[in-house]
Amino acid sequence: MTIAPSTPADARPRSALPLLVGILALIVAGGALWMSYNNATRLATSQEHAAVAPPPDTAVEQIKQTLASIQQAVQGIQADQQRQAERVGDAQQKAAAQQGEQKLISDQLSALSARVNSLESARAESPTPDPQAAPAPQRRTKR
To answer: Please, what is the end-to-end C-alpha distance for the chain in angstroms?
Structure first.
């Protein structure tokens, strides 16, 4: 008996089809990733441009109106501050005038007190008349 020579499994020619399918799958997957990356960068760029884009004219006008009203409010506050400063100045002048009047009254009172003290001391130094030497007050009689 002769045994036919067998060909080992490794010696069989392999099919290139599975290898080609794998390479093709890698290429398709890479292309899909590249396109999604490209789309993501375009989206991010357009969002950046949208964020930097100037606001519409209505928004600008509204901002201008708001700024104008704020400026008017500030001017009103400054005018109120000026009036208050004038009132404070007037009050300070009145207080200074009152202090001057109080000082004048105090000086006059001190002078009067000094005169009263001098009169009292002069009275104490003067001799008192003898009560018997003085004529007695006359009584009036009814008629």
So the answer is: 202
- CA dist 78 and 69 (Å) reads 14
The amino acid at 48: E
DSSP, residue by residue, 84-137: HHHHHHHHHHHHHHHHHHHHHHHHHHHHHHHHHHHHHHHHHHSPPPPTTTSPPP
Nearest CA-CA partner of 109 in 117, 119, 121, 97: 117
pTM of the shown model: 0.39
Residue-wise pLDDT for 31-69, tens only, equals 888 888 888 777 777 777 666 655 568 888 899 999 999
CA 58 – CA 49 distance, rounded (Å) = 20
> How many CB atoms are located within 10 Å of the residue 111 CB?
10
Q: Check residue 143 and report its DSSP letter.
A: -
| Residues near 54 by beta carbon (within 8 Å), at least 6 away in sequence | 60
